[in-house]
Amino acid sequence: MATATQRNTQKNTSLTDRARSAASGAQTRVSNATSATVDAAKDHPYAAAGIVAGAIAAVGGAAYAATRKSDGTTTTSKAKTKH
């Protein structure tokens, strides 16, 4: 008859093995995706450059908008004029 400690040790070992297996599978998939991305960039350098430029513009635009929002300044305020 197995003691509670032995059962817990067996469960922990099982979980550890499952986690290692999942990590190994994830590493393989990431490696394959990286290789495919590098190959695609080598095959289509101008398209890759365009995608990178678009991503940089999106991140830059988001950063700019975030700084404008945090400064409390708005571009939609209208000045009052006397008539």
Task: Write up this protein.
The chain crosses the membrane at residues 46-66. Keywords: Membrane, Transmembrane, Transmembrane helix. With 83 residues, this protein is an all-alpha fold. It is built from 2 helices and no strands. The chain has helices at residues 4-43, 45-71. Helix 1 packs across helix 2 (45-71). The longest helix has 40 residues, at 4-43. It is flat, with a radius of gyration of 27 Å. It starts with a helix and ends in a 12-residue tail after the last helix.
Task: Quickly list its features.
mainly alpha; 2 helices
What's the order of the H and E elements? HH
**Rg measurement, Å:** 27 Å
Q: Find the count of extended strands (DSSP E, 2+ residues).
A: 0
Give the averaged pLDDT, no decimals: 84
Shape: flat
Class inferred from helices and paired strands: mainly alpha
- Uncertain residue segments: none
- The number of distinct helices, counting runs of at least 4 residues, comes to 2
End-to-end CA span? 95 Å
Give helix % range.
over 70%
Q: Main beta sheet: strand number and arrangement?
A: none
Measured by DSSP, the beta-strand proportion falls in under 5%
Topology (elements, then pairings):
Layout: H1 4-43, H2 45-71
Briefly say what this structure is:
With 83 residues, this protein is an all-alpha fold. The chain contains two helices and no strands. It has a domain at 8-65.
